[in-house]
Write a structure and sequence with these properties.
A hairpin with a 5-residue loop joins strand 9 (about 240-245) and strand 10 (about 250-255). Helices cover about 50% and strands about 20% of the residues. Among the domains are: about 15-45 and about 275-360, no CATH class; about 370-515, Reverse transcriptase/Diguanylate cyclase domain (Alpha-Beta Plaits), CATH 3.30.70.270. It has helices spanning about 15-75, 80-85, 85-95, 140, 185-190, 215-220, 225-235, 270-295, 295-325, 335-360, 370-385, 400-405, 410-425, 450-465, 490-505; strands at about 105-110, 115-120, 145, 150, 160-170, 175-180, 200-205, 210-215, 240-245, 250-255, 265-270, 390-400, 430-435, 440-445, 475-485, 515.
Length: about 525
């Protein structure tokens, strides 16, 4: 019987080596792609969190601006001229109040919506009997402050916003004292933001109308926002959605609404910005895989070792990033892994920067109101336990408006930065100073007695009243001092007492420090 040799399967070395290279490379390629994808998700989450933080910061600044206007309006509503019915004298008082530059004009309307006083026109000039926003009628019904949506002002003949407060007693509202707010003021607040390229910030009123925009404001202010944004803002709260801008650009948008005024702030980042880096990284991974396929087993094994080492470092970095810890990355052996590592490092730096921006004033780099209040509440609790005395100092610059008006806002910004530095060098490391907006600062001195607090306040007046390089106009400072617990048991009461003392300092001739009287409200 004839025996035939066993059939031996012929193997192709080229094919088998290719398969071996694929077996070695594909898992590493898959891991690299997976790490890149998760890095993209983390980077996207970081960017979206940044949009939320910016939206909340803008809303906080906007509400602080509105609160400042409301406070001044309520003070003017209690003037003697209104109490006695001397409208001519009130007209002059209101026009004098406009010199601060905070608002556009003051208007006094009756319950029928007819204008009685308008500082844009001389007293006695016939005034419009219509055109007053219907929303201001709620001042008489609710006896509370009302903030309107954007409307066309009948006298100024341009788009504006109005706020009204009741004038009268507990039984009857006689007038509504209204103030016209120019949207330019809101636009200036937005323009001061340092936004990444392509990002968009917009402020939208309760009717869905755009009243401020970081890009193409002249084109879109006064128009309705896109329907998706109008719908989510109408529901209130905060969150993120995917939408399309007025220009038709797809964006991921963070939104937040004001519980007090029904306005909203939206911050959008183009979707192509989020996907651009990850597509580049995926392309790099693909190119690397094709290159490895052409080299051979040894090079595939070497590259696999390098990739796995880099992946471990990237995983550790990703875990650190997820925990909010500082990211440390050694030098990567592969360019692709280094690109991912740089993306992670950049995400970590962005998170640190966002955290800093959320707690500090962008111009002076001093703590902002949120950080100040957090530290102040801690200091008050500590002082209460230890029976110590604290002091809150309200600081306001004298003559600062002249710097802005005559030398420009750039010179004003330089003065504010120098003011911040001088105050920081005057107080102790245990004290805290914050810029509250404009040329107003708030300081908390820990563990001080009455004499030390007054001495520090007078030193601040002296150092802030020194000349400023490049500024020939005189600039000085007035300071109001409130002591804990004599003038209040919490930050709100102490700040109010310090503000009242600051007002007395202004009345008594400025450039001085005045101590608040205990128990005054």
């Amino acid at each position: 019987m004839l025996k035939y040799p066993a059939v031996v399967r012929r193997l192709s070395l080229r094919r088998d080596l290719m398969l071996l290279v694929l077996v070695c490379v594909l898992p590493v390629t898959f891991v690299s792609a997976l790490v890149t994808y998760f890095s993209y998700l983390q980077q996207r989450e970081s960017v979206e969190q940044q949009t939320e933080l910016i939206a909340r910061a803008v809303l906080a600044d906007l509400e602080r601006e509105i609160f400042t206007i409301e406070s001044g309006l309520k003070v003017l509503a209690t003037s003697n001229e209104l109490s006695t019915g001397d409208l001519r004298a009130f007209h002059q008082r209101a026009r004098d109040a406009l010199r601060s530059g905070a608002v556009h004009n003051y208007i006094l309307t009756d319950p029928q919506g007819r204008q009685v006083v308008n500082t844009l026109l001389p007293y006695g000039t016939p005034l419009p009997t219509s055109g007053t926003p219907v929303a201001l009628g709620r001042v008489f019904d609710d006896r509370a402050t009302v903030l309107t949506d954007m409307f066309m002002a009948p006298v100024a003949k341009k788009l504006g916003i109005a706020m009204g407060v009741p004038v009268g007693d507990a039984d009857k509202v006689i007038f509504s004292l209204n103030v016209g707010v120019d949207p330019v003021r809101i636009q200036a607040l937005i323009s001061a933001l340092a936004l990444p390229e392509g990002w968009l910030v917009a402020v939208i009123d309760g009717s869905g109308t755009i009243i401020g925009r970081s890009r193409d404001a002249e084109r879109f202010v006064g128009q309705k926002a896109v329907p998706e944004i109008v719908d989510v803002l109408a529901k209130g709260g905060q969150g993120r959605i995917e939408s399309v801008t007025k220009e038709g650009v797809p964006v991921v948008t963070a939104y937040v609404t004001s519980a007090s005024w029904k306005w909203g702030v939206v911050v959008g980042v183009p979707k192509n910005v989020l996907s651009r880096d990850v597509m580049t990284q995926f392309a790099s991974v693909l190119v690397a895989m094709l290159a490895v396929l052409g080299v051979g087993l040894w090079l595939a094994r070497t590259i696999s070792t390098r990739v796995l080492s880099s992946v471990r470092e990237l995983n550790d970095a990703a875990i650190s990033l997820g925990k909010g810890e500082r990211v440390y990355l050694p030098a990567m052996q592969l360019q692709e892994a280094e690109a991912v590592g740089k993306a992670i490092e950049q995400a970590a730096l962005s998170m640190q920067k966002v955290k800093f921006l959320a707690q500090h004033d962008t111009l002076t780099e001093l703590p902002n109101r949120l950080l100040f209040e957090e530290v102040a509440h801690h200091n008050l609790a500590f002082a209460q336990r230890r029976g110590q005395t604290l002091a809150v100092l309200a600081v306001d610059l004298d003559g600062f408006k002249g710097v802005n008006d005559n030398l420009g806002h750039s010179a004003g910004d330089d003065v504010l930065r120098m003011v911040a530095q001088r105050i920081a060098h005057t107080i102790r490391g245990s004290d805290i100073v914050a810029r509250m907006g404009g040329d107003e600062f708030l300081i908390m001195l820990t563990d001080v007695d009455r004499e030390s607090a007054i001495e520090t306040a007078e030193r601040i007046v002296a150092v802030l009243s020194e000349s400023y390089p490049g500024v020939e106009l005189p600039v000085s400072a007035s300071v109001g001092v409130a002591l804990y617990p004599l003038c209040g048991s919490n930050l709100t009461e102490l700040s109010a007492a310090a503000d009242r003392a600051l007002y007395r300092a202004k009345q008594e001739g400025k450039r001085r420090a005045v101590l608040a009287e205990p128990g005054k409200s």
